[in-house]
């Protein structure tokens, strides 16, 4: 693949908390309009790596980053890059649904409003809710509290909220871990539909989910050396889950450790 085929390129990326490594020297090319899964045991730096892709780690006072993250041809950690702008272009959906204590409509409109959107807000809200496969369920109660929605609906609302600011990339940090199987299936189907237009990176503990929905999978690990989480293997999911090249990957996906 050409460099232009990748939406994000991490180059020797390391993240530290209070000087202690959490992610160590990860180099990873994320393809455009694909779903990339990051898997690995708890504590191996998956979520930290994900948050480094849109500078969410900047919000942690003790965090520091070395290496590069190339997005749209530019290192997002260069001086002068506005992290707020990066977070609009690289949206995030968190582990637990976190709707604002506002109406459904105002949740979706929030980002565009503070970003200075001047178009037809109602049309944008409808498009975003349709994009998140939620419009038909909420179109008659847009002024109702978002907190009254079910867990799965709240998570799709958070996806709609991310879509409303027209991102290029959507980061998802275990988006189904708090949901029941039916809601999980709905989110997985939605991810596959969204990947036709957006690049998606998902952190998941659920290897079956990674195998079902992702095109590429990165396996991370940490060890007793306390050097931080590192990338063991990365490639097409079909190969990672059927013919891994590293014995540590095989041990993890077959349940022998982790």
Strand-helix topology:
Elements: E1 6-17, E2 20-31, E3 35-39, H1 46-52, E4 63-71, E5 74-75, H2 83-89, E6 90-93, H3 104-114, H4 121-131, H5 135-138, H6 151-163, E7 169-173, H7 181-194, E8 199-203, H8 207-213, E9 216-221, E10 230-236, H9 237-240, H10 247-253
Parallel strand pairs: 3-8, 3-9, 6-7, 7-8
Antiparallel strand pairs: 1-2, 1-4, 4-5, 9-10
Helix pairs in contact: 3-4, 3-6, 4-6, 6-7
Can you walk me through this structure?
This protein has 258 residues and is an alpha/beta fold. It has one domain (3-253): P-loop containing nucleotide triphosphate hydrolases (Rossmann fold), CATH 3.40.50.300. 33% of the residues lie in helices and 26% in strands. The chain has a 6-stranded mixed β-sheet with strand order 6-7-8-3-9-10, with helices on both faces. A hairpin with a 2-residue loop joins β1 (6-17) and β2. The longest helix is centred in the C-terminal third of the chain and has 14 residues, at 181-194.
Q: Give me the side-by-side strand order of the main sheet.
A: 6-7-8-3-9-10
Distance between the termini: 32 Å
Architecture in CATH?
A: 3-Layer(aba) Sandwich
**Rg over C-alpha atoms, rounded to the nearest angstrom:** 18 Å
SSE class: alpha/beta
Low-confidence stretches: none
Largest sheet: 6 strands, mixed
Order of helices and strands: EEEHEEHEHHHHEHEHEEHH
- Fraction of helical residues: 25-40%
What overall geometry do the principal axes of the alpha carbons give? globular
> In total, how many beta strands?
10
Average predicted confidence as pLDDT: 94
Number of helices: 10
Annotated CATH homologous superfamily: P-loop containing nucleotide triphosphate hydrolases
The CATH class, by name, is: Alpha Beta
Strand content: 25-35%
The structural domain count equals 1
CATH topology: Rossmann fold
